[in-house]
Amino acid sequence: MKLSPEIIEEKTFTLLGCVYYGDPFHSAQPWSIDNEIGKTWERFGKLYFISSKFLDKIIINPKIGYEVHIESRDYRKTKNFHIFVGMEVKSTEFVPIEMFIKILPKTKYAFFTTKGDDYKTCEYAFQEWLPNSNFEQSFPYIIEAYEEGRYDYQKIDDSENEVDWYIPIKAKEKAR
User: With a threshold of 0.85, does the pTM exceed it?
Assistant: First the structure.
């Protein structure tokens, strides 16, 4: 596998959504709407529906949902991480009390697209591309983007589904 990501110049993501902390796979396997990530998306969807009259004015693209996996400082010991699901917003003036705002730091991103539930691309990005590139991860998170028309969550294991991955990067620091 030889993939070259698109390098996205510095960008700040401002997201509105719901959070989960813990082991998201304790109740069901990855790529299942029954695991804690799926339940967090379900909660977000219900809250979005209730507030859509207001939220539709601030959502940048209602066809794209973002899922951020943030590796906590104690991840290696606990295997717990933060999951944030939601949509990108252009304003934080209206935030339903049950939702949260997450402002991700301004950074460059390596942008990959995968088909289906292909973890190989993500593994390739971290195990081969990143170590052999002129970049290193700038922050301990990744973003998955799910776009309506390219991803059908009701057919979660469909091999035609496409998921976009954003890996925050910075230039490698030179050894002294």
Answer: yes
Q: Taking the domain 6-171, which CATH number applies?
A: 3.20.80.10
Q: How far is Cα 160 from Cα 145, in angstroms, rounded to an integer?
A: 15
Closest CA to 8 of 138, 116, 118: 138
Give me the residue label for tokens 């207001």: 54
In the prediction, which pLDDT does 123 show? Answer: 81
Using DSSP bridges, classify how beta strands 64-71 and 81-88 pair: parallel, antiparallel or unpaired.
antiparallel
- Show contacts of 50-55: CB within 8 Å, 24+ apart: 50/96, 51/94, 51/96, 54/94, 54/96, 55/16, 55/87, 55/89, 55/94, 55/96
Q: Is 10 exposed, middle or buried (0-12, 13-18, 19+ CB in 10 A)?
A: exposed
* Structure tokens that stand for 56 in this block: 């539709």
**Nearest CA among 157, 153, 159, 167 for reference residue 39:** 153
Q: What is the pLDDT of residues 71-105, one digit of tens each?
A: 888 888 887 889 999 999 999 988 999 999 999 99
